Amino acid sequence: MELKNKATRFGPREIFNFKLLGTPQMRAFHMSWFAFFLCFFAWFGIAPLMKIVAKEMSLTKSQIGWCIIGSVAITVLARLFIGWLCDRVGPRLAYTWLLLLGSIPVMCIGFAHDFTTFLIFRIAIGAIGASFVITQYHTSVMFAPNCVGTANATSAGWGNLGGGVTQMVMPLVFAGFVTLLGFSESIGWRASMFVAGLMCALTGVAYYLFTQDAPDGNFSELRAKGLLPKKEESKGTFLEAAKDYRVWALFIIYGTCFGIELTINNVATLYFLNHFDYFQEMDSVKALSIAGLIAGSFGLMNLFARTLGGHFGDKFGAKWGLSGRVKWLFVVLFCEGLALMLFSQMSVLLLAIPALILFSLFVQMSEGATFSVVPFINKRALGSVSGIVGAGGNAGAVAAGFLFKAESLTWPTALFVLGSIVTCCSFFCFAVNFSEAAETEARLHTDAVGVGLSGPLELEPAPATS
User: What range(s) does the Major facilitator superfamily (MFS) profile domain occupy (predicted)?
Assistant: First the structure.
């Protein structure tokens, strides 16, 4: 797919320059991260409230485990489909419909009255997690090779921030409904989820109105002008991506970083409430709020940690080529596994918090480093590659969920086992290699980069990139 006028600069000067909101590149960046943020917020909005839900519906440990698995299982299929859909109709329409349709189960989970109905809605909500693939796709087609890793990592990182914010904000929203408006706890968590779903629906409308698929227009317009291959010519891209063993290596790798983040988002508040004595004597609303704030620190690292992973991926790529990006990925993933094992052994709250933050740093840098590699695997099948790799994150979370469901394993032991698995899986990075021709092409594109974004700052347009 040949697209021109990709942005060749991405940094604080571009991100916080409001004049650049007039450019399609920066508009896509800001809309995509914000949409993903709200999707993440809605996706895991119920997680910090599970103590209340479990009490109301008398859920067992095994049933809570099934809820953890269900929340991420459907996203595996949704991400595979949405990647293919992006190649066909473009990210603008894909995101619009995902936000509008995905908001329905988020709002409707308030109608759940027992474990079965709750699990059905929890599974349905998981489809909204496919938003990640569209976010990465949209920034990948808007930014040039020299900065695409940083742009991808920042858009996804700021989106993932929703996972941390929801741990902090949803207990406060719940507390507001209960203490300020006088709702019962049963009505309070239901009303909280309705608010999250409504925000997703409104963002879906905004995405349609304020973004476009590519720097020079929407896919339908570009195809009509002969600037993009027709839909029929994009057939077979999914199979093409699926036949590449490197895609499946990245599938596993992403499962051991983003999959772990999803798992922690699901269990963090409950983990702190159940495994640290500090919370045992508090009333439920206060304990929930404090545990949510601590658990939220894990997700808040997305504010900069994932960006660091992508930024250093770009730097390693500029110095050592595509193989440099892969080596950086190995380093941060290996350290993630060690940090997770360390956190699992913490039994004192004051030690557990810094261990959690260190672990979070490496998790999110690993995610950013992964998607600094993905855009270079197969540019013709970018959506399908992104979808498969992104699905790996959810597949990893599903697999991890079974550890937390097992009655025979304590949650600290489950975390230690996960850390060991991550450390071992980091060696899959060495299966991701590139031909000399791909290395040369990437070098040429990096060397040929222009001076920056076209648009209000009157900078020259970027050269055409594939």
Answer: 28-437
Q: Give 7's DSSP letter.
A: B
Which two three-digit tokens encode residue 33? 């991260």
* Residue 67: closest CA among 84, 83, 51, 85: 51
Contact of 186 with 56, CB cutoff 8 Å: yes
Q: What is the dihedral of CA 175, 108, 260, 354, to 10 degrees?
A: -10
Domain 26-447, what architecture? Up-down Bundle (1.20)
Domain boundaries, the chain: 26-447
Give the Å distances, CA to CA, from 212 to 180, 220, 225.
42, 11, 16
pLDDT (tens digit per residue) in 234-260? 677 788 999 999 999 999 999 999 999
pTM of this structure: 0.79
DSSP class of residue 262 equals H
Q: SS3 of 450, please?
A: coil
State the average pLDDT over residues 362-383: 91
Cβ 73 vs Cβ 101: under 8 Å: no
327: its two tokens: 């080596």
Residues 238-265 as b/e (b if ≥16 CB within 10 A, e otherwise) read beebeebebbbbbbbbbbbbbbbbbbbb
Compute the distance between CA of residue 213 and CA of residue 385 in angstroms, rounded to an integer.
Answer: 18
Residue 3: per-residue pLDDT: 67
